[in-house]
Amino acid sequence: MFKKTLIAATLAAMSTSAMAVDVNNVGTLSYTYGNEALTNGQTKNDFTAVELNAVVLELGAAYSVGDIIKVNITGAEFKADDTYALDTSDALVIEVGFLSATANQLVFRVTTAAAGTDAENLTLAAGSKIKLDTLAVDAKVTVSATAETSTGITIDAQGTDDSKVVGTVIQQHKFVVTTSLNEKIDVSEERKELDSVTLDTATVTYTMTDPTFAATDFDTSGAGEITMKATGSYTGFEDAQNSSTNLGVITLGTIDSTVAVDLQSGSAALGATAASTTFDAVFTPDTGATTKVVLNVSAYTFDFTLNDGANSTSYTGLAGGSFVLNGSSAQYAYVPVNYDGAVTTQFEIGNSGVLDGEITLTAFDTVGNTYSAVLPFNAEAGKLTKVSDADISTAFALTAGTKLNLTITVNAPNEDITYGAYSNRGTTGRMAISKL
Q: What is the pTM of this model?
């Protein structure tokens, strides 16, 4: 009984993944497949178009007639009703015949074997059709192989490379915002101008990488075209929509964008390209004394549509930065808030100008929690506006008393804004809180 147990344990140990045929790095083993051509149906993922490159299996044991070799695949499927072959470079040493196929495994049997099989390579030829499990970018296809005797005992302990990635789905056309918008609208100029004389530019870097499996190449050269779209407020950049009232413009690539009627987006056809490049979005507001208009606070995103002459694919929602208002701010290092009346904090914002100012609160507490909110009321022009303990607690959704390092930002000219801050501790009177 003890000997039988040892034998069983030994056979179990031999039947591990280490007991495998090497998947060799002979030639260009791995293919890359273009996501764009696959997802829009230009290349069908139905066993008719997607192929494996040649996969070479390096034998590491002496084989006999009747031994079984199994080729396994993950991340893709074999066509179960198709016929596959493992070719040898020397027919006098070893030959194998095809037995069966399932979605994830091919089975072959050795039909001829001579001395020297442990130095032989078998090749699953290029052109073997597969179907990818997923078309997602970075999806992998992996092949492994095992061998066993006709009675099921695992053989071939070479196994240092018992599996290999033989295919990867790539994004052939890639767009990355490498320079974002970071501009302020000048409230001292009635919000009709940027506070910098330098026009703001967002830059998108476009990289094109050809897939090595050419059937999944989505070609935008020749009859193809790239269209760029900027989404966000076009008020103040309306040239192509309504040039009689505003001469501002957003240039995409080198072309002035055609503006949508609702002034919330604009696009430009940039032509064909077969190489990596950059596309700039240049924001040029109107500077005319009578035609310039109030600019809107806005976040901008960029979309790209690629057309190869017959098919199209899109990349949407690339965050491109934003335009915000400049204005006044004050920071307070110690602000007790939401202590149920034991301590009550209040701020007063004086606005002596003619422009109302949006009030933004940002803060962090003693344990590192961060907070940010825009109040539902403005610092009104010509008035004193109060920001109460309750206003802050509600804005930050506080459920317990806490101490905050608080910054108040008012989007109105700095010279028009003044601040006051104090807290009441029970009935002991008012205590001033000083700005940093």
A: 0.76
